Amino acid sequence: MGLKNLLGGQTLPKETHLEVLPPHQVVEHCFCPNGHSILSDQHQYDGYPGILLKLKAAEQEGLLSLSPIIGDPARTFHNFRQQNGDVIDICCPVCDTVFPIYNQCGCGAHLIALFTSQKNDYSDCIGICQRIGCLNAEIISGRELRLLDRVNYF
Ligand SMILES: [Zn+2]
Ligand SMILES: [Zn+2]
């Protein structure tokens, strides 16, 4: 754009898109309802600390780490035999508190909320499904959770 545009009374194009998505949207903070950080330096994804969760099923307990990169489905089970379809309790690895249910998932199980601030605010959380196999679903942001909220599954 020329100097004329800067000085003259011409209006800038209305459709100026300044919103540029960063290359990665990374979960930088993640807490249990008791305020424990569940990001783990021992479980890194692309150099970012992964989200560490404790899984409890009827006959076994293990850990699950998730990539903190939004949209990245990478995850690793530790000492946990995956049985697709099982619905499991997802707990804080520090205090064992079960994460609260946020919503119904499309698969019929529940989405649980992982808080991204220590305010335990459902508008500030990410959600994952309790069902093994459906954990293939990527981490979804609070915004997407709220979109899901408007979908009536029943
Ligand atoms: Zn905790
Ligand atoms: Zn699900």
Summed up:
This protein has 154 residues and is mainly beta. The chain is built from two helices and eight strands, in the order H-E-E-E-E-E-E-E-E-H. The chain has helices at 3-7, 142-149, and strands at residues 39-45, 48-56, 61-66, 75-78, 89-91, 101-104, 110-115, 125-129.
Notes on the protein architecture:
The chain is mostly beta strands and 154 residues long. The chain has one domain. Helices cover 8% and strands 29% of the residues. It has helices at residues 3-7, 142-149; strands spanning 39-45, 48-56, 61-66, 75-78, 89-91, 101-104, 110-115, 125-129. Strands 1, 2, 3, 4 and 5 form a five-stranded antiparallel sheet that branches. A three-stranded antiparallel sheet has the order 6-7-8, with helices on one face. It is globular. The chain starts with a helix and ends in a 5-residue tail after the last helix. The model has no long low-confidence stretch (mean pLDDT 80). One zinc ion is lined by residues 32, 34, 36, 92, 94-95, 97. One zinc ion is lined by residues 105, 107, 109, 129, 131, 134.
- Mean pLDDT score: 80
- The helix/strand class is mainly beta
The gross shape turns out to be globular
Largest sheet: 5 strands, antiparallel
**Total helical segments:** 2
The tally of beta strands, per DSSP, is: 8
What is the terminal separation in angstroms? 54 Å
If you compute it from the alpha carbons, what radius of gyration comes out, rounded to the nearest whole angstrom?
Answer: 20 Å
- What are the secondary-structure elements, in order, as H or E? HEEEEEEEEH
Number of self-contained structural domains: 1
Which range best describes the helical content: under 10%, 10-25%, 25-40%, 40-55%, 55-70% or over 70%?
Answer: under 10%
Q: Write out the distinct hetero groups bound to the structure.
A: zinc ion
Please indicate the percent range of residues in DSSP E strands (runs of 2 or more).
25-35%
Q: Which spans of ≥5 residues are poorly predicted at pLDDT below 50?
A: none
